Amino acid sequence: METAHKNILDLSYPQLKELVCSLSEPAYRADQILWWIYGKLATSFGEMTNLPQSLRQKLAEVASLTSLTPVDETISADGQTRKALFRLDDGKTIESSLMLYEKTGSSRERRTVCVSTQVGCNIGCSFCATGQQGFERNLRPGEIMEQVLYFMRLVSTEQLSGDAATDPARRPVTNVVFMGMGEPLANYEAVWQSIVTLNSKHGLGLGARQITVSTVGLVPQVRRLAGESVHVELAISLHAASDALRNKLVPVNKKYPLSQLIPACRDYFKKTGRRPTFEYALFQGVNDSVNHARELARLLEGMNCQVNLIAGNPTACQEFTPSPMKRVLAFQKILRDSGVSSTVRVSKGVDIEAGCGQLRSRWIANSSTP
Ligand code: SAH
Ligand code: SF4
Q: In this model, does residue 361 exceed pLDDT 60?
């Protein structure tokens, strides 16, 4: 039965070597398998033609290469954002998206995949569609990697040809952000293994700067991440600059208040050299006043960081309506006048419910078997 198999994508590099050795093959076969998976985007062992036929057969008997089934896909009106909903092997669903960014003066063309790390989320942020769905389970490393592979295959069949493994400029996916459903640092081991695979020359070979982990601010895990060998970019979902307001919007703030979170972010920069980004979604009448902006400027004073301002995505909850752009820009001006660097991000794919957990919410609402 498919689910009784090991999924090859769940294995770390050392574990894959162990598997091939247990099948009486030399360890370098692991490198060949990974080259087929991440370089040639193979979807079956049968395609791996430089492996002995007997090994391909044995692998097919003990292992599988896929566990996600795409069940829904949407493309934004401008064609720049694609969102996919996948069914996992236990019937649960997750969503992921691909965002295309054209080359601009200062930045290169990017093809960014946003991955989910959990089915649902137990943090319960009041403005977040995923938070309102509750928590079901952590994703395995292979389930995280397969979201990336899905979009790599899609891009390479639609736009690119050639050898993705040997030509980094032609990589179908250039960036990965852990910003989909779930709290990545609450599924630390699987997320860390995925980061290693994304970064490794045996995997995707992405630079650490091309990988971003977005967290609600689990302080011990932020500190742990700072000590790891791959220094990824860190985004903190802040959304409020006082404990009183943040306790309401992001309940985990009661456990890890700003007096713990901000020093952990400063230390992240000291240890990794990566400037943290603070995500701040503005909701009308909730966190978007002049005073809120001043509070934020005071909190981040003198810190080497970046603020991403975004007009919140509409959710089912009446209390949270996006701030008008005029207000977002006024907020930004106060930050600028106080010397805090910020960008206003345009929410990509709002027309296809690309906000965290939104496609899945609609799908669950319309389906009797989510
Ligand atoms: N759990 C992690 C990563 C997933 S959420 C985290 O919270 O950082 C990805 C981002 O979407 C977070 O910054 C989150 O705060 C934001 N988000 C969730 N709901 C939103 C909404 N309605 N409008 C704008 N941003 C939202
Ligand atoms: Fe979970 Fe992030 Fe949504 Fe909060 S914003 S409920 S941490 S997914």
A: no
CB 363 within 8 A of CB 321: no
Ligand nearest to the CA of 121: 2
Q: Helices 325-337 and 290-299 meet at what angle, rounded to 10?
A: 40
**Domain residues for 18?**
6-64
Measured between alpha carbons, how far is 343 from 121 in angstroms, rounded to an integer?
27
Whether residues 147 and 174 share a domain: the answer is yes
pTM value? Answer: 0.93
Same domain, 60 and 104: no
Same-domain check for residues 51 and 79: no
Q: How far is the CA of 19 from the centre of ligand 1 (A)?
A: 38
> Mean pLDDT over residues 96-102, rounded?
90
Tokens 């030509």 belong to 167
Structure tokens at 368: 């009797």
In the predicted model, what is the mean pLDDT of the chain? 89
**83-112 burial, b for 16+ CB within 10 Å, e for fewer?**
bbbbbbbeebbbbbbbbbeeeeeeeeeebb
Q: Is 215 in the pocket of ligand 2 (CB under 6 A)?
A: no
- Measured CA to CA in angstroms, residue 334 lies from 50, 144, 298, 330 at distances of 60, 39, 11, 7
Give domain status of residue 125, yes or no.
yes
Asked if 144 and 117 touch (Cβ cutoff 8 Å), the reply is yes
105 and 27 within one domain: no
pLDDT tens sequence across 332-360 = 999 999 999 999 987 665 555 555 455 45
Q: Whole-angstrom Cα distance, residue 35 to residue 167?
A: 13
- Phi and psi of 96, rounded to 5°? -145, 160
Which residue has the CA at smallest separation from atom 12 of ligand 1?
Answer: 237
Candidates 95, 136, 143, 279; catalytic one: 95
- Give 257-310 pLDDT, tens digit per residue: 999 999 999 999 999 999 999 999 999 999 999 999 999 999 999 999 999 999
